[in-house]
Amino acid sequence: MTLSKQQTFDRAVRLASRIDDDFLELGRLLKQLQERDSELFDQVREETRLGRRRAYYLVKIARCVEGLPIPREQLARIGWTKLALIAEELTHTNWREMLELAEKHTAHGLKAVLAGRRPNERCVVLYLSAKDYQRLANALLRYGATSTGSALSNKEPALMALIAAAEGADAK
Which domain holds residue 19? Predict the structure, then answer.
């Protein structure tokens, strides 16, 4: 049974207040409104204070999981945040692997894995004077970093080699 535009709107408004209860159904309803009446789609967002980005993520998820034999319970367990990260990657051949990745990692870790990084990497930001930066760059170059124009490559392994050397010196 196809809902009228007004019924779809009313149901979407009700679900938006409890997004975590059934985000997939909300995404499906928002997708229908977006396709049938973009003004009603925008009105749902305004009335419910559902952010524009979140609304589009929910539509994207609904669109990408449509036709895939994924149990709704599994999608609910994973959550819309992680599904938004993998939605466009899902295919009939890889959905099991992609969902396994999503179940195994936090959203932050999943984002890293999808970008080809390790899930538990940490980022370090240093603010150094020009003189101290040059000292750091010279030390990293001595321990394996390479100069590529005005930037350094292989900084991470070089830094870890420098630390290992410092730890070895401390042990003596």
Answer: 5-114
